[in-house]
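Running low. Invent one:
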Amino acid sequence: MRIKLIFATVLFFIFTIAHAQDQKIEMTKEEQKKAKKEEPPHKGSVYFTPLPVLSANPSFGFIYGVATNTSWFMGDPATTKISSMFAGVSLTTKGQTLITAKATAFSEDNNYKLDMDWRYLKSSQATYGLGSGPLSNRLASNGFQFTEQGAFSAPINSAQLLAFTWFRAYQTVTKKVGNGIYVGLGYHLDILSKFKDNLLNLDTVPPVITSFYAYNTKYGFSNSKNTLSGISLNAIVDTRDNVNAPYSGQYAQFTFRINPSFLGSNKSSTSLWAEYRNYFDLTNDHKNMLAFWVYGSFQTSGSLPYMNLPSIGYDQYSSSGRGYTQGSIKGQSLMYTEIEYRRKLFGTANNPDKWGIVIFGNLTTASSKDGNIGLFKYIDPAGGAGIRFMANPKSRTTLALDYAVGKRNSSGIYLGLNELF
């Protein structure tokens, strides 16, 4: 009997100790989880923000899919800027498939900067010929001369829907040579194929000749596949405090692309991209920000394929031109400017900048060498407003929802991750 009592007592103590250890382990796990959530950013910190994609805009109709923003530090946050990558897969009610991966990354101590823009698009765009301004001033609206005797094609006074498959692989690596100053090289590849020019009809009298077909005929490009392959020389000034939602700093970029035929381009050409952004803290607490953006995109020699001509919405994150269909304003030269007022409204103790609003306006001008439309001859304005939700205050990952209106009854709803510039 005594032996049984001793044995039961030992079992009781073993059970009690094991149960206490389990509680301790559970408490430790909870504490570790809480500590990890509350710990300040450090080298190796990763912030992952997934969300569904539900939006609508003039280019794609209703869009649905999934997207993520991943931000991380490759070095000490005191000396290394946060890196950010956006990736998404979307389908649209217009039968399009959009797969994108875009990143801006900084190595430890910001010694190197990587910019990446990869896309696979089974898509379509409504094109309107070249140059900004009213449709009546664009060549397609007046018809194209297609015989030496002066016969003209039928005028086109509506959007020219062009379907295509587009593979893009852009990557640029630059090295820091000064405080926020980088220089380096890049490689850029665009392959466009499976074109379907919906309005083209050469069998009618007079024929219906689209801007895409006329441009390709004049400049010697294929109507079925275009390739642009080249290297770039890059100079960047980037003193922004955060790439997701800057509160201070400036950004400037100069990219000169050389697209020789021996690298696979259909025709040799060069182009220039020049960009500048600045951010003004109006109340010194980032609650009232004014953001400014201007860029110019220019064909500097040779001939670019029609879809690679400077166009609205063709920047790295497809941010420009809210209020217009992507690619609807296109030309041999294009300049764009935008100003946006950003106001923080209210939040919580852990996320004081949780909710905000923006009001913005933009201007676009584009040239057409064949349509006799010079840069600044016509300017297309647009504007709108939106709301902001800061999903992760440590990385400043922000959910953006905007509504914008442009000319010619153009408008759209835009959902995205992070500030647009």
